[in-house]
């Protein structure tokens, strides 16, 4: 009996030794795929897509993945189930989306703003811990909207490397670190002297991949009155493009549902071309989620804090 107890104690001590030794192993020796557990944050990927786009990569390429608690640490953060997803088809808009078996937006305007807002308004009272807003493309090189990997511009690589504890700490995190475009020159809604109506006949209602900054400033001035009616127009707005970001439930709830309803009302009512309204919306998300009007962290710091590339 004593002998059996002695062996049990030795086995327990050996287990403790191996556990604490493993925690000091270099990152490359720690298993990448971890067993699913319920201790980590709940999370969802939200995106809009064309009916012709293949987004199967979201479920096939983003299973459980290893995440460092900090850029300098080799201790794993908590994990939960794989990413959930809410993928909206935008070019087959449905007037009553809740009656369909697949997700549709009620209209197709302002590019990714409509599916993003559709999700937030539909799930405002039942949000997961982290919401990740992405575009439908898996990687580049033409889709350069995420720059975690300058060669592939891969959303998969970016999501796998994204430090969720940092997202939870910050409330809002932009996935793009490069300052061009968005953080060079900036937008100046309060000081733009032109008038929105004076521009409608030229470049406000016609497609343009890169609308002039004056045009975007005028569109933002128009949107601002809907979304933030009691807040003065900012002199400067700047953020790295391209409307791919992560937010927490708490940060979403820092604004009442009515703010998101007003944002959606502007999208629904505006006559601006999608290239203008969508680009204007890109300059508003970071303000909506609590950051300063000019939100342009240094590129090297962003890579370190957001992705652990220090």
In words, what does this structure look like?
With about 300 residues, this protein is an alpha/beta fold. It has helices at about 1-20, 55-60, 115-120, 155-160, 165-170, 195-205, 215-225, 250-255, 255-270, 275-280, 285-290, 300-305; strands at about 45-50, 85-90, 130-135, 170-175, 240, 245-250, 295.
Question: TL;DR of this structure?
Answer:
This protein has 310 residues and is of the alpha/beta class. It has helices at 2-22, 57-61, 113-122, 155-161, 164-170, 196-204, 213-227, 249-253, 257-269, 274-282, 285-288, 299-307, and strands at 43-49, 84-89, 130-133, 172-174, 238-239, 245-248, 294-295. Strand 1 (43-49), helix 2 and strand 2 (84-89) form a beta-alpha-beta unit.
Radius of gyration: 22 Å
How are strands sequenced across the largest beta sheet? Answer: 2-1-3-6-4
Shape: globular
**How is the quaternary structure best described?**
single chain
Mean of all residue-level pLDDT scores: 78
Main pleated sheet: 5 strands, mixed
Percent range for β-strand residues: 5-15%
Series of secondary-structure elements, N-terminal to C-terminal:
HEHEHEHHEHHEEHHHHEH
Uncertain regions spanning at least 5 consecutive residues: 14-37, 65-80, 199-208
Helix content: 25-40%
The total of helices stands at 12
Decide which structural class fits the backbone: alpha/beta
Report how far the terminal alpha carbons are from each other.
55 Å
């Amino acid at each position: 009996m004593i002998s059996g107890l002695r062996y049990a104690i030795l086995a327990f001590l050996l287990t403790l030794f191996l556990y604490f030794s493993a925690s000091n192993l270099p990152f490359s020796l720690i298993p990448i795929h971890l067993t699913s557990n319920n201790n980590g944050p709940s999370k969802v990927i939200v995106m809009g897509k064309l009916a012709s786009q293949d987004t199967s990569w979201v479920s096939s390429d983003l299973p459980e993945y290893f995440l460092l608690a900090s850029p300098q640490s080799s201790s794993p953060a908590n994990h939960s189930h794989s990413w959930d997803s809410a993928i909206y088809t935008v070019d087959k808009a449905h007037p009553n989306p809740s009656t369909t078996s697949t997700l549709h937006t009620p209209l197709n305007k302002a590019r990714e703003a409509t599916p993003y807002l559709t999700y937030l308004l539909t799930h405002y009272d039942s949000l997961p811990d982290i919401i990740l807003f992405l575009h439908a493309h898996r990687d580049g090189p033409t889709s350069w909207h995420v720059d975690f990997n300058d060669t592939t511009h891969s959303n998969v690589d970016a999501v796998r490397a994204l430090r969720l504890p940092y997202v939870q700490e910050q409330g809002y995190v932009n996935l793009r670190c490069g300052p061009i475009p968005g953080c060079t020159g900036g937008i100046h809604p309060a000081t733009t002297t032109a008038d929105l109506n004076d521009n409608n006949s030229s470049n406000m209602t016609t497609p343009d991949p890169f609308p002039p900054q004056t045009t975007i400033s005028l569109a933002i001035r128009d949107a601002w009155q809907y979304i933030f009616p009691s807040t003065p127009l900012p002199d400067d707005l700047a953020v790295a493009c391209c409307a791919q970001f992560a937010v927490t439930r708490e940060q979403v709830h820092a604004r009442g549902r009515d703010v998101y309803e007003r944002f959606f009302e502007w999208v629904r009512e505006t006559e601006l071309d999608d290239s203008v309204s969508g680009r204007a919306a890109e300059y508003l998300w970071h303000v909506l989620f609590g950051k300063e009007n000019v939100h342009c962290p240094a590129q090297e710091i962003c890579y370190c804090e957001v992705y652990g590339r220090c």
